[in-house]
Amino acid sequence: VRDPVITFLSDYGLNDEFVGTCHGVIARVCPAARVIDLTHGVPRQDVRAGALVLAAALPYLPVGVHLAVVDPGVGGERRAVAAKLGDGRVLVGPDNGLLSLAATVGGGCVAAVDIGDSPFRLQPVSPTFHGRDIFAPVAARIASGAALSECGSPVDPGGLLTLELPHPEVLDGVLIAHVIYVDAFGNVQLDAGREEMARAGVNPGVEVVISTGAEPRVPVPARYARTFTDVPPAELVIYEDSARRLAIAVNQGAAAAQLGVGSGAEVRISL
Amino acid sequence: VRDPVITFLSDYGLNDEFVGTCHGVIARVCPAARVIDLTHGVPRQDVRAGALVLAAALPYLPVGVHLAVVDPGVGGERRAVAAKLGDGRVLVGPDNGLLSLAATVGGGCVAAVDIGDSPFRLQPVSPTFHGRDIFAPVAARIASGAALSECGSPVDPGGLLTLELPHPEVLDGVLIAHVIYVDAFGNVQLDAGREEMARAGVNPGVEVVISTGAEPRVPVPARYARTFTDVPPAELVIYEDSARRLAIAVNQGAAAAQLGVGSGAEVRISL
Amino acid sequence: VRDPVITFLSDYGLNDEFVGTCHGVIARVCPAARVIDLTHGVPRQDVRAGALVLAAALPYLPVGVHLAVVDPGVGGERRAVAAKLGDGRVLVGPDNGLLSLAATVGGGCVAAVDIGDSPFRLQPVSPTFHGRDIFAPVAARIASGAALSECGSPVDPGGLLTLELPHPEVLDGVLIAHVIYVDAFGNVQLDAGREEMARAGVNPGVEVVISTGAEPRVPVPARYARTFTDVPPAELVIYEDSARRLAIAVNQGAAAAQLGVGSGAEVRISL
Question: Which residue of C has its CA nearest to B133?
Answer without folding.
Answer: C242
